[in-house]
Amino acid sequence: MTISRRQMLAGAIAAPIALKFAILPAGAQTGTAGTQVVALQKVKAGEAIVTAISDGYIPIDVAYLSNITPEAANEALAAQFMGASPVVTGVNAYLVTLGDRTVLVDAGGAGYAPDMGKLVAGIEAAGVALGDIDAILLTHLHIDHIGALVTAGSATFPNAELHVHENDVAFFSSAENKAAAPEPFKVFFDKAVEALTVYEGKVKTFTGETEVVPGITTRELFGHTPGHCGFVVGTGEEALFIWGDIVHVGPVQMARPDVGIAFDVDGPAAIATRKAVFEKVAAERTRIAGMHIAFPGIGHLVKLAEGDGYDFEPSSWVYTLD
Questions:
Q1: In this predicted model, what pLDDT tens digit does every residue of 92-150 receive, in sequence order?
Q2: Contacts of 278 by beta carbon, 8 Å cutoff, 6+ apart
Q3: Would you kindly state where each structural domain of the chain is located, as residue ranges?
């Protein structure tokens, strides 16, 4: 799958964030001493235990948002008692224990930004050995979702198969797409190809809605990338819908689902997908988990009484999993 040079340069896949934060304030470019301890939270999803793990965070300038002015974006942030841009956006992953399977959903952004890369420590703190993970489900192949897959040229998770949508494999494996990308963004293609190469023979592609591992079903959520998808763990009221990158700046995009972001490969499709997902999960009261919602990123969407916006209601702390 290829994308036109016009789309590539229009800002969708150009992702200014690939500039390694060179345009962010100096304080956002380096880690700080006053950091939190390893962040974990467990919830049940039917028969599964899902452990939310924080990989860290990434600062995002609201100038990367589309269909909204920076002033209006900052007003939306203030309404949620948040400071002005850049927005500190969480980077989450989810470890699923289901029967005899140990499954990781996304792999964080180790090596990409100074305040990411805590996933491996989180997995170990959860009492899981890296070799015990037998499947890794990838919402897409962006660098902040595959960062921990490879360590010093070898598979960090030696016994895991990678499950990824066939569209993303085709897109990020394309030399033509890489050549059309701005120079700072070429590393996204390099890292994706590196991961696919290191796990060669263990990469399993899928398409459509399928039970990718027993008890976990895929959902195609195209737009952010050509193969962006989510995963539903469990069924019924206890299910958890891990929706990947449906939002990046939640306080703005939940209030204004029409607001896009420069990291989307197909901006209009990403917006349409977000609107459809928001409507569905709110109407069906589906519990969701998001990679870029403040840790642990788990909760429900509630439709606002007026307008087209939604409010996010975080799930309460779970004291017991009985």
A1: 999 999 999 999 999 999 988 889 999 999 999 999 999 999 999 999 999 999 999 99
A2: 246, 254, 257, 301, 310
A3: 5-18+39-314
DSSP string, 234-285: SSGGG-EEE-TTS-SSHHHHTT-TT-EETT-SSHHHHHHHHHHHHHHHHHHT
Query: Do 38 and 121 form a contact (C-beta atoms < 8 A)?
Result: yes
Contact, 216 vs 137, CB < 8 A?
A: yes
For residue 172, CA distances in Å to 54, 82, 178, 279, 287 come to 26, 35, 7, 30, 31
3-state secondary structure of 302: strand
Q: What rounded mean pLDDT belongs to the chain?
A: 90
Strands 240-242 and 40-45: unpaired
DSSP label of 64: G
Query: 3-state SS of 72-94?
Result: HHHHHHHHCCCCCCCEEEEEEEE
Buried b or exposed e, range 51-81, using 16+ CB within 10 angstroms: bbbbbbbbbbbbebbeebeeebbbebbeeee
Within a 13 Å sphere around the CA of 289, how many CA atoms are in the beta-carbon half?
30
The distance from CA 234 to its chain's CA centroid, rounded to whole angstroms, is: 20
Q: Are 17 and 60 in contact (CB under 8 A)?
A: yes
Tell me the longest C-alpha to C-alpha distance in the chain.
Answer: 53
Cβ partners under 8 Å of residue 270, min gap 6: 223, 224, 228, 260, 261, 264
> pTM score, two decimals?
0.90
| Phi and psi, residue 161, nearest 5° | -90, 145
Domain 5-18+39-314, CATH among 3.10.450.70, 3.60.15.10, 3.40.50.300, 1.10.260.40: 3.60.15.10
- Strands 240-242 and 229-233: what pairing? antiparallel
Structure tokens at 29: 């470019």
